[in-house]
Automatic annotation (TrEMBL):
Function: Involved in peptide bond synthesis. Stimulates efficient translation and peptide-bond synthesis on native or reconstituted 70S ribosomes in vitro. Probably functions indirectly by altering the affinity of the ribosome for aminoacyl-tRNA, thus increasing their reactivity as acceptors for peptidyl transferase.
A Gene Ontology cellular-component term: cytosol
Name under which the protein is recorded: Elongation factor P
Domain Elongation factor P C-terminal: 131-186
GO terms under biological process: peptide biosynthetic process
Family listed: Belongs to the elongation factor P family.
Single GO MF annotation: translation elongation factor activity
SMART domains reported for this sequence: EFP, Elong-fact-P_C
Organism: Leptospirillum ferrodiazotrophum
Translation elongation factor P/YeiP central domain sequence ranges: 69-123
Presence of the UniProt keyword Cytoplasm in the record: yes
Keywords of the record: Cytoplasm, Elongation factor, Protein biosynthesis
Compartments where found: Cytoplasm
PANTHER family: ELONGATION FACTOR P, ELONGATION FACTOR P (EF-P) FAMILY PROTEIN
Length: 191
């Protein structure tokens, strides 16, 4: 199994801590005047999405988790279960609402996503950074509303609510950043 040392830490690097797969969100090498050097980190659990802070001694070694990524297509959701298919082998897998967490807010049928497998078991998905979604419900645009000032909530086809400029209306297609849930731009007018 591959090993990572604290001197190899980089943002996004993967490591196994206490038998769980994590990736590094932030890290800082610290060399105090007294005592040994250490590394302060923020780690995100790849299975649960929980972020923890940990400090490690300089030179400490960790196993690199057995994580594989595979691009699959989201087929449909039924109750708490979400079904995905490998377009090459037609193999299907199921993940639960709990496995996916907030990622379901931007998941559209037929969307390609990266499924993360840990020890050959699917654990979660990585969405594309940007998705195009249709506004299905929002307050109508009013005369005097400007494109540059303020925002209003808009419900999109996946059920998520996104803050959008006042001039947008139902039927408009918008680009949303899946990492921050922020409106980026209008892709196409619905009228």
């Amino acid at each position: 199994m591959a090993v990572i040392v604290t001197s190899d830490f980089r943002g996004g690097a993967r490591l196994e801590v206490d038998g769980e797969p994590y990736f590094i969100v932030e890290f800082q090498h610290v060399k105090p005047g007294k005592g040994g050097a250490f590394v302060r980190t923020k780690l995100k659990n790849m299975k649960t999405g929980l972020v923890i802070e940990r400090t490690f001694r300089s030179g400490e070694k960790f196993d690199v988790p057995d994580v594989e990524e595979k691009t699959m297509q989201f087929l449909y959701a039924q109750g708490e279960d979400y079904y995905f298919m490998d377009n090459e082998s037609y193999e299907q897998i199921t993940l639960t609402k709990k496995d996916l967490g907030d990622r379901i807010l931007f998941l559209k049928e037929q969307m390609p996503v990266n499924i993360l497998f840990y020890k050959e078991k699917p654990i979660t998905i990585d969405l594309p950074t940007f998705v195009d979604l249709t506004i299905v419900e929002t307050d109508p645009a009013r005369k005097g509303d400007t494109a540059s000032g303020g925002s209003k909530p808009a419900k999109v086809e996946t059920g998520a609510t996104v803050k959008v400029p006042f001039h947008l209306q139902e039927g408009d297609v918008i680009k949303v950043d899946t990492r921050t849930s922020e409106y980026i731009e209008r892709v196409r007018s619905g009228s």
